[in-house]
Every structure is written in structure tokens, then in C-alpha cells.
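Contributing new complexes? Match this layout with flavin-adenine dinucleotide.
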Amino acid sequence: MNRVHSLEKLRAGEVFDLLVIGGGATGLGVAVDAAARGYTVALLERGDFASGTSSRSTKLVHGGVRYLRQGDLTLVRTALRERGLLARNAPHLVHTLDFIIPAYGLTDRTFYGLGLKLYDTLAGPLSLGSSRILGRHETLEHLLNIEPSGLRGGVLYRDAQFDDARLAITLALTANDHDAVLLNHAEVLDFTREDGRITGVLVRDRIGGGDLSVRARFVINATGVYVDALRALEDPAAAPRVSVSQGAHLVLPRRFLPGASALMVPKTDDGRVLFAIPWRDRVLVGTTDTARPAPEAEPRALAEECAFLLSHARRYLSETPSAGDVLSVFAGQRPLVRGKAGAETKSLSRDHSISIGPGGLLTVAGGKWTTYRAIAEEIVDLAAKITGLPPKPCPTAGLPLRASTPILPGSEPLHRQLPYFEAEVRRAAREEAAQTVEDVLSRRTRCLLLNARAASACAPRVAAILAEELGHEDAWIAAQTAAFQTLAADYLYPVD
Ligand SMILES: Cc1cc2nc3c(=O)[nH]c(=O)nc-3n(C[C@H](O)[C@H](O)[C@H](O)COP(=O)(O)OP(=O)(O)OC[C@H]3O[C@@H](n4cnc5c(N)ncnc54)[C@H](O)[C@@H]3O)c2cc1C
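Output block (do not edit by hand):
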């Protein structure tokens, strides 16, 4: 995937069958689906692929045990099916993980044990393995650092885990392999119209500068928490449809959750679900659900969110973490489809909704990473029908997603506390359309999430390699290094 080639193709003046705005899970899923069916498709992303919510998730491919509690069986069943399909189609990025719910109360094991039997049943033939009740001893064996006092046992169930930004890049590469034209750092500024109908978009190239216009038969707004901004460009009178809710995560050293299993707390003080999950030799603790007044491109974990997560981690872990142990904090924003005025964000729907505006713009809002493929299938079916494109069956349920090319051995490590090599920076620039130090350290590799200080220390070297690969001068290296180090400071545990 080469950004210069994509730009040339977009400038050639082709009228695409479909044009997708937004390169997160939803937009990339649509690009893969449409391209694999044989439609022509372009995708434009304002920042980098997955720079919005799609690189800031809890990284679970799951049915959603919490939705089971809310009685949303249709969402759980769809998500469990999608979990199974993704595990088949991207085995290099998705793996199963045992989750343990520790039982401290008298009835916890029976209550959660029965609920998880229903979870197993809903997964049907794509089940990843059965749940089971654990005794105290077995629970302690799985969760070596769990608080033992008052522990009666636990319930084990299976779900799956992935690397969200790497899956996004994989989807972009897969779509590119099927001749989709994808451009990151390309912001849609406005629509072009004929007789009130949207015929394309006006785009700003945020790397090379300059504007271009791209034409399409059908335009899809997959901009996550920003969908209302695009809808307002289509129709200034359009009422807002999404609320913004933020979720934060802490990243801790692995010693706070040794062993192969994750910890799931089904009900925190304020009724949320909390996870502590082994991920890339670290532990992710999350998440929160905090209503925010407006979307932010670079949301910051709030001090109170971090304090909430740390205090719960301390309650359930025997060797307790403190703020000084936190390697990184990150936050992402959920676009929740609006409920009644005043409804709490944690009660709003995680399911997606699709609407068509007066100019013909399709807007998709809400959803989960886990269900991106099913959402994309629904959108492309609908788009083809509305546009009168020849109907073509959706192949993505059985479409293997492409793996990155392996790096050659012998490359220098980026940092002794990070599991990445300089060759991965070069590959990111040559094959994965990485343009900035942030693209490399946040999403092509996950350095920023794994250790914000170490990532900051790598920035000058990464900038120098990128400058070599992409042909930039010394001033660019200095500016990129400074910009990344400012960003990385926001990934440190906040001090009052
Ligand atoms: C804290 C948290 C944890 C989560 N954990 C999980 C989980 O474990 N498992 C799971 O299945 N789901 C999870 N989710 C949900 C999942 O992450 C989201 O549903 C999914 O990432 C949304 O993808 P999206 O493509 O709709 O939005 P986004 O990823 O936000 O993508 C929208 C894109 O549109 C771009 N854009 C905006 N305006 C423009 C414009 N004018 N021009 C061009 N581009 C534009 C943005 O830059 C952005 O990249 C979680 C969500 C949150 C917030």
C-alpha cells in the first residue's frame, strides 16, 4: 500500500462506485467488503488508519458478557458468530483467552456460571470452548496475583483478544490487495452536489497539501464520533444522533497479572464491567464510561478515570500497583446512538444504526470492533441496492485477511523495553503507508501504549528512519520528534 500511488489514482478523476469517509473499523470493513465483491471503492481518512476509536479499544473480540446481562441476546449472538469468523480469517491477529470472574460472594459462582452457559450456547458451533466453575485453589492458580482474602472460587469462560490497530492496518492492506484506493491523512472538507444529491467529496491532503475532489455514486459516512459533523455538512438542520462516551485504560507491567488468564470484574462500584487483561507482555486495565460534551481527535484519560481504574486494580490484586507503576494511559471515545434525553451513556445502545440523509449520504453510527464485518456487509448490500449496482454476494465471512510481510532478522531493536525493531519502521513506511512518527509508534507498532516514556525516547531515531524512507529534511525530523514527545506526555499517568 503506497500513499503516493493512492493519491495519483484519486487524482485520475474516476467515478467510484462507493466512497467511504473514515478509516476506522467500520470504514475499513466496508472498503474490504466492497472491493472483495468487485465494486470500485475509495476510502479517505483524516488522520491515520485507526487513529480514532479503533486503536483505543480494550482489544477484545467478544460477544459482550455485559450485553448478556442487559438481555441484548441478538447483539451477543451476532458478536459471538463474528468472533468465530474473525478467529478463522485472521488467526495471526486473534487468539483465544481464558477470562476468570473471581467469586467473593456466596451466590456469585452459580449466578455467573449459569449466565456463561447461555453465552456458550449462543456461540453455537463457533464456540471457543466451554465455561466452567472453578474452586478457590484453581482460581488462585489461574490468577496468581488475585486478592485471596474472602475468595471462594471463580468462573472461567473463553473469549478472544486482538491487536486493534494492527487489524485495521491488515484490513487496509487487504482492501488495497483487492484494488480499493485508500488514503490516510486526507480530510473530507465538504460534499460536491448535483441537484441536491451528493456526487462526491472535497478532500484536503494533509501531508502534501492541496485539495482534490473525488467523485462517487454513493458516499458512506463512517466517521465514528464525528458522524454528526458530516451529517451537518449534508444538512445543516440535521439533529445530532450520537452521544460521546469515553473509556480509559491503564497499562501496567506484566507482574501484576502473571499467568495466561484475564480477570473480569462484572460489577464495579458504579455497575461497570472491568477487565485486567494480559496483552503484549503488559496488563491492560479498563475501562470507564464517562460522558463527554464533544468528540476529541486525541482524547486524554481524565485524572478521575485513572484514579478509578487504579483503585479497582488495587482492590482485586494482591501485589497492588501504584501510579508510578503505570507505563501508559490511553482513552477512546464511543459513538453511542442517542437515547432519551438524560439517559446515562452506559445504558445507551452499543449496537449500530444506519440512516440515509436527504442528499443520499449513508451514515453508520455505533457498533463494536467485533461486529465490523457484519456491519460492513449490511452497508454494502444496502448501498448496492440504492445505487442500482449489480448485486454481488458478500465473500468476507470466508475471506482470509492478509498478514504483513515478515521482517528480516538482524535488525536493531528500537528500545530495550519495547519488542520492536528498526526494520518494522522501514516496513511501515514502505508497505503500510505510515507517514509520521506517531503512525509508527502508536499504530504500526504499539510502543506508545506499551510504554509511553520508552516510546518518547525512540522518537528521534524513528523520525530519522522515516526521513530516509520518505525523503524529508532535518527540520522535519526535529518537528516530528517534538510533536510526538508532546503527544506521549499525555499518555503518562496524570499528576494533579
Ligand atoms: C474504550 C473503548 C473500548 C472498546 N473496546 C472494545 C472491545 O474490546 N471490543 C470491541 O469489539 N469493541 C470495542 N470498542 C468499540 C470499538 O472500538 C468501536 O466500535 C470501533 O472502533 C468504532 O470504529 P469506527 O470506524 O466506527 O470509528 P473510528 O475508529 O473512530 O473511525 C472513524 C474515523 O473517521 C475519521 N474521520 C472523522 N472525520 C473525518 C473527515 N472529515 N474526513 C476523513 N476522516 C474523518 C476519524 O479520524 C476516525 O479515524 C471499544 C470502544 C471504546 C471507546
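Reviewers usually confirm one structural detail per submission. For this one: The two ends are 43 Å apart (CA to CA).
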